[in-house]
Design goal:
The protein has 245 residues and is α/β, with parallel strands linked by helices. Helix content is 37%, strand content 21%.
Length: 245
């Protein structure tokens, strides 16, 4: 594997301050957070596949709003069918039991439905995908299937080496210095794979942060605030370079 499976650490973090400006709408029979830019880049859209806290998490919604502020029409659907995990679950929470109900067989058809919606209904000629933790696997899989054109993931989990080897588009990765899901050996394995694949890639490592920092990091800590903000800028610069026509 290029990263380990999600674990209890995927539920820990800090709720951020701010008021989301996007709207919750029903798309393809699925509740979806949509952030629309005032000056959109033409024929381009971004699909966010969130971490296990889901699309209603204010932190994730604020990120979607930030992509919209940078000109990207952004959709973030409920990929957990009304069953996300609330923040900071107790130690005895049955994470493996929850994960069994949210495997590829259930999640991937929804992702593909939204990629198709963005292309055929919205009219996006090029689609970028953003995946945090749980969502990273599906960004990589869609890059392999040529469903999306460009991908960005942060602190990825559950990505198989064969999935990473199959990508057919540019991929950017934001990694945490301390991450039991995407540790140093998995970063190095991913780097070796991406070098062989030959697609444009980027792996940025942020010091002083842990798994989940790009969404759920404690913004009161200097290193975390810097890492979270820079990881977002990394995504925007990646899409500005490889997604916009």
């Amino acid at each position: 594997m290029a990263s380990h499976a999600p674990a209890q650490c995927c539920t820990f973090g800090v709720k951020h301050e701010g008021t989301p400006t996007g709207k919750m709408e029903t798309v393809e029979d699925t509740e979806t957070y949509i952030a629309r830019p005032s000056s959109p880049h033409p024929s381009v859209a971004i699909l966010i596949i969130p971490d296990v806290i889901g699309h209603r998490f204010v932190n994730a919604q604020l990120i979607a709003d930030q992509f919209a502020a940078n000109g990207y029409l952004t959709y973030m659907p409920d990929v957990f069918f009304g069953d996300p995990i609330s923040l900071n679950r107790p130690a005895d929470f049955d994470f493996p039991g929850w994960a069994k109900n949210h495997g590829v067989d259930r999640t991937e058809p929804l992702i593909k439905k939204f990629v198709k919606h963005l292309r055929e209904t919205v009219g996006a000629k090029r689609v970028g995908a953003v995946g945090y933790c749980f969502g990273a696997k599906y960004v990589v899989r869609e890059l392999g299937a040529k469903g999306v054109d460009v991908g960005y993931v942060a602190h990825p989990s559950f990505v198989d080496a064969e999935e990473l080897k199959a990508i057919k588009g540019p991929l950017s990765i934001a990694a945490a210095e301390t991450d039991q899901i995407f540790p140093a050996d998995k970063r190095h394995e991913s780097e070796a794979i991406l070098k062989e694949v030959g697609q444009p890639y980027q792996i940025n490592l942020y010091s002083g942060v842990e798994h989940g920092f790009a969404v759920r990091g404690d913004m009161q800590k200097k290193e975390v605030k810097f890492g979270k903000e820079q990881a977002f800028y990394q995504a925007v610069q990646w899409f500005d370079t490889y997604l916009k026509e």
